[in-house]
Design goal:
The structure is a single chain. By secondary structure, this protein is an alpha/beta fold. The protein is built from seven helices and eight strands.
């Protein structure tokens, strides 16, 4: 009998005891065996409330073989993966709102400073004044229509590029920010797995 598993690269659980179904998708023609394997305890976190473990898929194969040594295991996922433990904590509503407000404030002023620094660096205001003088035949005395159009176009461009307005998305495609976060997460996980493997701290068949 063959058991097919697909292990996730990373999994976050909120209970110390981790079962096979928490970290992998499982398929077996024998549904009774499949249900038994889904409920199979794989390991238990010792550190709480937050912890992290790097586990080898061979360790899962060993655990499955302990149920029935005649089972053949096929893995279609990662050879090494990470499991994070983050127990649920009740957070006050005002604390959550304060965090959101702080992040929004930092993002707003950070983006504002970056745009202003870029415009100053390339001399965009001086360019607008020159264009206005060439077209109108006189020097401007204040903000011109170019400034207004540039501001509106910049706002629209940011919204279209980031593909995100509040809870709404302009399309179903992932936003550039989501893509960069996924790439960053993948790089972090690869580094953790590499460092853990070198330090022999990985949960494996030999550990």
């Amino acid at each position: 009998m063959t058991v097919y598993i697909k292990v996730n690269d990373t999994t976050c659980v909120n209970k110390p005891t981790v079962h096979l179904k928490d970290i992998a998708a499982i398929y077996c023609t024998n549904k009774d065996m499949e249900e038994q394997l889904k409920k199979l305890p794989v390991f238990k976190f010792r550190k709480r409330p937050t912890a992290r473990e790097v586990i080898s898929t061979l360790y899962l194969v060993e655990k499955i073989k302990e149920v029935d040594k005649n089972l053949e295991v096929e893995n279609f996922g990662s050879s090494d993966f990470i499991v994070y433990l983050k127990e649920k904590k009740t957070e006050k509503a005002w604390v959550h709102r304060l965090k959101i407000f702080f992040v929004a404030l930092v993002s707003f002023f950070g983006a504002t400073f970056s745009i202003m620094a870029y415009n100053t660096d390339v001399g965009i205001e001086e360019l607008f004044f020159r264009i206005y003088a060439l077209v109108m035949g006189k020097n401007p005395t204040g903000p011109t229509i170019l400034h207004v159009c540039y501001s509106i176009g910049l706002s629209i461009g940011i919204l279209v590029f980031f593909n995100h307005v509040g809870k709404m998305k302009l399309s179903k495609e992932p936003t550039p920010f989501q893509i960069q976060m996924k790439l960053y997460e993948k790089d972090v996980n690869d580094s953790i797995i590499m460092e853990t493997g070198q330090g022999k701290e990985e949960i494996d068949v030999d550990s």
